[in-house]
Amino acid sequence: MLLTQTTTPEDVKALDRAELPLLCGEIRHAILESSAAVGGHVAPNLGVVELTVALHRVFNSPIDKIVFDVSHQTYAHKALTGRAYTYIDPERFGEASGFANPDESEHDLFAMGHTSTSVSLGCGLAHARDLAGDSYNVITIIGDGSLSGGLAFEGFNNAAELDSNLIIIVNDNDQSIAENHGGLYRNLAELRTSNGTCERNVFRAMGLDYRYLDAGNDVLALVDTLQELRNIDHPIVLHVSTAKGKGFEPAQSDPERWHHVGPFDMATGRKLCPGHPSEPAPRTYADITGEALSAAIERDPQVVGITAATPYIMGFTPELRAAAGKQFVDVGIAEEHAVTFATALARSGAKPVFGVYGTFLQRAYDELWHDLCLNDAPATILVFGASIFGTTSETHLSFFDISMLGGLPNMHYLAPACMEEYLSMLSWSLDHREHPVAIRVPGIGLVSRPDLAPAEDTDYSTVRYNVVRQGRDVAVLALGDFFELGERVANRLTAEYGIEATLVNPRFATELNREFLDSLAAEHRVVVTLEDGILDGGWGERVACYLACTPVRTRTFGIAKGFPDRYDPNELLAQNGMTVENMAAEAVRLLNE
Amino acid sequence: MLLTQTTTPEDVKALDRAELPLLCGEIRHAILESSAAVGGHVAPNLGVVELTVALHRVFNSPIDKIVFDVSHQTYAHKALTGRAYTYIDPERFGEASGFANPDESEHDLFAMGHTSTSVSLGCGLAHARDLAGDSYNVITIIGDGSLSGGLAFEGFNNAAELDSNLIIIVNDNDQSIAENHGGLYRNLAELRTSNGTCERNVFRAMGLDYRYLDAGNDVLALVDTLQELRNIDHPIVLHVSTAKGKGFEPAQSDPERWHHVGPFDMATGRKLCPGHPSEPAPRTYADITGEALSAAIERDPQVVGITAATPYIMGFTPELRAAAGKQFVDVGIAEEHAVTFATALARSGAKPVFGVYGTFLQRAYDELWHDLCLNDAPATILVFGASIFGTTSETHLSFFDISMLGGLPNMHYLAPACMEEYLSMLSWSLDHREHPVAIRVPGIGLVSRPDLAPAEDTDYSTVRYNVVRQGRDVAVLALGDFFELGERVANRLTAEYGIEATLVNPRFATELNREFLDSLAAEHRVVVTLEDGILDGGWGERVACYLACTPVRTRTFGIAKGFPDRYDPNELLAQNGMTVENMAAEAVRLLNE
């Protein structure tokens, strides 16, 4: 096996030229086999095997600097820079991070997982090189899907001002996670079909030199082209056409569903549900969101679903998208546009619902502040994955959302404790015309608790916490999907300590129910807050601050800010003192102080 | 005077065609005269007088929807939609907001002041129109300077997918606030010199129809062109060439310095210092920043100043920029790129310093989180204007910064109390290689207090609050530029109530000095915090939360979150209970409870 002996970029350079296609085949097989076992970004990685081999054949990493945008397509790169074990040794499958990670290798320059950053990073690397009087190559790879993000454009625009070496490789597989959206993609298609010769050329128009290579999965052609570009003295775009999912028929024919997958059967392509290989996947908040929104769209021509290239997170399958017509808009990877677009829709009487992962909503902080909230536009934002039980990669942590949204005026941020409450809030929000509303979709799997969403209590326009159980001495305020964890704390206080604690479902993640908090002091001496997010700027901090000038003692439980990577959520809870035992004991300790 | 009788768009339509140039002249004179008296965005407004008159001649606002990007160039629009008084009646000069404001008029569709939003807003307006089955025109105006912001590109890319009316007017005056930067601008220049006919065309490349008009200050030519575009059935870019500062020689020949000005002498163009017309402007934090950074640049080839189109806020005059050469980079209006670019520079051993207004840094929230902080890149961010004494327009409030940055791991956010401490922190930060550092440049004018920045205490790598005066019972923790306000509270506690309070300069705006806070409890029962920012997610909240499970009572003073507009800072303080008298009285009340 070539791959076991080709562990460094030097090894790639030492191979016979004729061996390169064989190496590519072995890498492809290893990626498939390891992904079948532990899941992964299958389709993106299969597409860039040849490009990656060619890069390490031609350039001299880490002296030459190679930056992969998003970096979820770095499996081949990792295999060739000392980390083949994670793809060929079944005992070590999944051991390396799924993203670039400087802690793993000097060939990974940045930790990253969000899109559209690589050109700006390349500009910085090139400028630093020039300041230091060095002369290495800087190569950045960016996928066509990532081009629609505004940051990428800012990078291209600035790259054109550089008067030194920068090679920007546009890896064009004609596919974002779902299909691409925007006029730019018509230009890419025209460039592909004209073999790069058509008059319209967005890269040339932005002042960049340009070259096209159709054979993006031909390693020898790539080597030859890169060899010619090596040491070029100005910025150039190399536009290569690759096939997403290359070499694995199921992924190549349905790259959207094969963008990122869990374990699957290599022979059939059938996906397996981890732990229960024979059962279908359980229903999710995505499913019920897609169903509820599709029904609303059918009922009301003003309802518009919006996604920034991730329709599946809100349950919008290709079928539901087609059925929704103009009432479902995929803006491509462009969260900023999504929020500003939703602002104008909402101000014009429409009822936009933008569904987005918490981690990607970060891109639109200013648009939330300056467009949506300043204009008090009654749009709905559904924040998915906002939980320590969401993605556990440091690059995609989504539990900073309360801290991020907490400073925005005018917005309600609702945190439902169960699916019934979530659907009730979503339904209310569609018809609410006063303020922007964001909903923190629970991150720990569907929980049915009809008792928490009484049918007569479906107005969320004033901040009112729901007292689920009235007690005394200690009050447990447990936000959103951590309500049940708080319930267990309250139960333990009774069972272990004989304390009948008050148990509250606060429902509002950033606003205080001041009357309720004022009334607490009469019969409570200790308040405990729980939230599925960081403490700094979070909800508990706000509660604690409000009570800090009263005799009530408050202890907040949440996650210390930081970038934990590939953590075990339950271990993270324990590290932050969030075991039921410890939280109950802390309440009792404070009570007895 | 035509202008006094032309108060609505209908009036513009009723004028004889030959009167239109006269109306333009009157509007220009009124803008100049009112701006000379009260200041304003002189150059941008002078450039679009003809365009605005033509828009209201041809289109039927508010049925047709007109959106001005940034909206600091809406003076002519305001004059023609019922608000001429604010430009022609000396008693009412400055009465209307300097930005679009829906509370003033139904012709102002959105409150806005940040750039690059108008195309996305136009897409939303057009989509809402199409959903409702209406047929009005949607017109968005965007300046060339705003084109470099990524959101604008996201908007253009999505606009190309629209299959209905949208007229995007690119108001090209070949000038951002300072000069333009990026490859895009070479294309705009080529388009201007070729009268729109050159092969390279960034708008066509993005899939948009395109038309060029060189005579952007010829009202009749504009009317004719817009008339042809009215009711067009698809998106089109109308690229018009205008002259920034048109009709006022000082502004036309130096549009950077005339972008926004205070009062000036109309005859000579000499700028007046408000209140002291005969004296030169006082020195500012911009001045000392420019001096300190220029010296560092001369000393150390790795220091790089970065601006996103606002070099003057960090004191970089055209002369200092020229002297810095490659060590000063203006990325254009592109805050996202600036942060990601700085990340790569810092990770490559360079020492980037990005100076930015707090309100514009919001654009880069995700890049701060995902690029800078996740990669722990030792860049420096100088946050200017972050104070209630900064810009008082609701669109540009810059005192949300602590709340915004407080959730970011790895970053130190320093809040100096005076100029000596600021310079000490800046100097330390340049050589600090561990973490990203942001510095909250004081917002209330240069304060010299050498006593607060002892020469032996210039290491800010560990969080340590500076106890300026040791007392007991009450501790006053007063952050950054509110230190002196806190000092006055402490002094009043002594003078009025005989309480020798402890007085602390905390220096760190988002991090807790836990040892110090733990030690407080021994001799203090009340802690008062002051900060020049919003309370929600702010610094005081963090302190209060930390102390909430101890017997110490904490009262936080800061600003309630909201969008106050054109407020008086001292009134805002009073509304938030931040008079010296009230803060001292509150401390005493809590002490006696």
Q: What's the arrangement of secondary structure elements?
A:
The structure is a homodimer of 593-residue chains.
Chain A: H1 2-5, H2 9-14, H3 20-38, H4 42-47, H5 49-58, E1 65-68, H6 75-83, H7 85-88, H8 118-132, E2 138-143, H9 150-159, E3 166-172, H10 183-193, H11 202-205, E4 209-213, H12 219-229, E5 235-241, H13 249-253, H14 285-299, E6 303-307, H15 318-324, E7 328-330, H16 335-347, E8 351-357, H17 358-361, H18 365-373, E9 380-384, H19 401-405, E10 412-414, H20 419-431, E11 437-440, E12 466-469, E13 473-478, H21 483-497, E14 502-505, H22 514-520, E15 524-534, H23 539-547, E16 553-559, H24 569-575, H25 580-592
Parallel strand pairs in A: 1-2, 2-3, 3-5, 4-5, 6-7, 6-8, 8-9, 9-11, 10-11, 13-14, 13-15, 15-16
Antiparallel strand pairs in A: 12-14
Protein name (chains A, B): 1-deoxy-D-xylulose-5-phosphate synthase
Family (chains A, B): Belongs to the transketolase family. DXPS subfamily.
Keywords (chains A, B): Isoprene biosynthesis, Magnesium, Metal-binding, Thiamine biosynthesis, Thiamine pyrophosphate, Transferase
Quick take:
Two copies of one chain form a homodimer. Chain A is an alpha/beta fold and 593 residues long.
Average pLDDT level of chain A: 96
* Major beta sheet summary of chain A: 6 strands, parallel
The dominant shape of chain A is globular
Q: Which protein chains are joined by the largest interface, and how many residues does each one contribute? A: A-B, 116 and 116 residues
Low-confidence segments of chain A, ≥5 residues, pLDDT <50? none
Multimeric state = homodimer
Q: What proportion of the residues of chain A is helical, as a percent range?
A: 25-40%
Output the CATH homologous superfamily of the largest domain in chain A: Thiamin diphosphate (ThDP)-binding fold, Pyr/PP domains
CATH topology of the largest domain in chain A: Rossmann fold
Structural class of chain A: alpha/beta
Number of DSSP strands of chain A? 16
Q: Using only CA atoms, what is the Rg of chain A?
A: 26 Å
Q: Given the structure, what is the number of helices of chain A?
A: 25
User: What is the beta-strand fraction of chain A?
Assistant: 5-15%
Number of domains of chain A: 3
CATH class of the largest domain in chain A, named Alpha Beta
CATH architecture of the largest domain in chain A: 3-Layer(aba) Sandwich
Order of strands, main sheet of chain A, comes to 7-6-8-9-11-10
